[in-house]
Automatic annotation (TrEMBL):
Recorded metabolic or biological pathway in which this protein acts: Cell wall biogenesis; cell wall polysaccharide biosynthesis
InterPro entries (alphabetical): Glyco_trans_2-like (IPR001173), Nucleotide-diphossugar_trans (IPR029044)
Family: Belongs to the glycosyltransferase 2 family.
Keyword Glycosyltransferase: yes
Residue runs in coiled coils: none
Domain Glycosyltransferase 2-like per the UniProt entry, residue ranges: 13-179
Key word Nucleotide-binding present: no
Record keywords, A-Z: Glycosyltransferase, Transferase
Matching Gene3D superfamilies: Spore Coat Polysaccharide Biosynthesis Protein SpsA, Chain A
Protein name according to UniProt: Glycosyltransferase
Any one Pfam family match given in the protein's UniProt record, by short name: Glycos_transf_2
Length: 316
């Protein structure tokens, strides 16, 4: 009888910033997964509420990476993924924020969906506190998907995807080594859109409804919800993505670009602070067209162990 295959080595990467109580819940849910994790890398983005202490108290499963400055979600994921690859030899990375609480079988269902397939990315069904679908984390279905890919995804009750969010994204470690890390200079907003489409360009991904996580945002809303001053990052990062990134084809840039303009107009029209969004749009347009994101080694310099790991994963 042939020996049983070794279980996949999965390292979770959790980016934390000033949500200590939620972080404790997230770490407890990760420790309780039906399929055990190899490690949990927690990146503390210079929190001031004791989040680092919560991570330290969570036991040996957790590898805490404390940053001396807030690098945003994008920088946090880049740093955490680099440490996971450099120090823990994963087969898969499982990415989430510190307000993402996986159900007990979330990881098991993701792994079951990709086992024996050529899928390199899998995403969970994301719900809010009350169990309703969370519109902030809806994956984009893959357009013009082939019949065999559609059938393969359907066998696992899923759909073929072109993008997914960092609210429970499973990505194959060898693909991360090939394509690099998320772009730290995005800071917040569209970092997961750029990264997941980069990982999935020419590759297969699947949305797995049987894998469920609870996204404990304060309100139930989509990306059309009034974003306030953060609208700057939405505009700048989308323009950086469409102009600088190779994650989308030319046709996709036209398609998603038109969709973005419609969402921007809708967001401004619905806002109670239209002057704030107009200002964010002007500054975002200026910086998105006149600047470009820095290399991660530069954006994440001076952060000790995290900087060293980024240099190892993305040598210049």
């Amino acid at each position: 009888m042939s020996p049983s295959p070794e279980p996949a080595r999965v390292v979770a990467v959790v980016v934390a910033y000033n949500r200590a109580e939620l972080l404790a819940e997230v770490l407890a849910s990760l420790a309780a997964q039906r399929t055990p994790l190899t490690r949990v890398v927690v990146v503390d983005n210079a929190s001031t509420d004791g989040s680092a202490e919560v991570a330290r108290a969570a036991g040996e499963l957790v590898d805490l990476v404390s940053l001396s400055r807030n690098t945003g979600g994008a920088g946090g994921f880049a740093a955490g993924m680099a440490v996971a690859l450099a120090d823990h030899e994963p087969d898969w990375l499982w990415l989430m924020d510190d307000d993402t609480v996986p159900t007990e079988g979330a990881l098991a269902e993701l792994l079951a969906a990709v086992e024996g397939t050529d899928a390199v990315v899998a995403g969970s069904r994301v719900v809010w506190h009350d169990g309703s679908e969370h519109p902030m984390n809806t994956p984009r279905q893959k357009p013009f998907v082939s019949r065999d890919e559609r059938i393969a995804a359907a066998r696992h009750g899923g759909i073929a995807i072109r993008s997914t969010s960092f609210v429970s994204m499973l990505v194959r470690a060898d693909v991360v080594r090939e394509i690099g890390l998320p772009i730290a200079d995005y800071f917040i907003w569209n970092d997961d859109f750029e990264y997941s489409t980069r990982a999935l360009r020419g590759r297969r991904g699947i949305h797995v409804p049987a894998s469920v996580v609870v996204h404990k945002t304060k309100v139930l809303g989509s990306t059309d919800a009034d974003p306030g001053p953060r609208f700057y990052y939405e505009v700048r990062n989308k323009l950086w993505m469409f102009r600088r990134s190779s994650s989308l084809s030319t046709g996709e840039k036209v398609l998603y670009g038109a969709s973005s303009v419609r969402r921007w107009m809708r967001a401004i029209a619905r806002s109670h602070e239209r002057h704030v969004l107009r200002d964010g749009w002007k500054r975002g347009y200026r910086d998105g067209t006149r600047t470009r994101p820095r290399p991660n080694a530069m954006a994440l310099a001076g952060l000790g162990r995290a900087s060293d790991a980024v240099q190892r994963v993305e040598p210049s």
